[in-house]
Amino acid sequence: MRKTHTNVRLDPESLERLRTMAETRSTNVTALISEAVERFLREESFRNDLASMEQSLAATVVSAIKETARVGDDVQLLIGQVDQLMKFVFQATPEIFDKEAAAIVGSRRYTGFLESFGKEFVGRKRRARFAAGMDQTMSGDEEPDEK
Hints:
Blueprint: H1 12-25, H2 29-92, H3 99-117, H4 119-122, H5 125-139
Helix pairs in contact: 1-2, 2-3, 2-5
């Protein structure tokens, strides 16, 4: 391969260290500088490959985070649906045949269910909004505003 001549300016200490190293390796300063440049170019190529992989990995992580958020929304929807099912079970199908008494007993049973279901769901805004929306839908009112 044909080589092109170029000049490199070095401080005296660096040049002396290169000469000593060249002598130790039985080569010359030009060969050491050529080797250093080749190594630098390989490492730079490797850095570029790493940057590309990092971008790809970041995109994958962002995609996974979005999918996790969608799963979280599905879980919230499921919680709301279970909420409505339990409300139906406790209020519409009690053992009491009197409708007013059944509603009172059902409400008490539903409140007990919510307390036993777990306090971690009680304060969740999305579950509350979904449950309120389901209540309004079941009663025939307008859809609730999304906040």
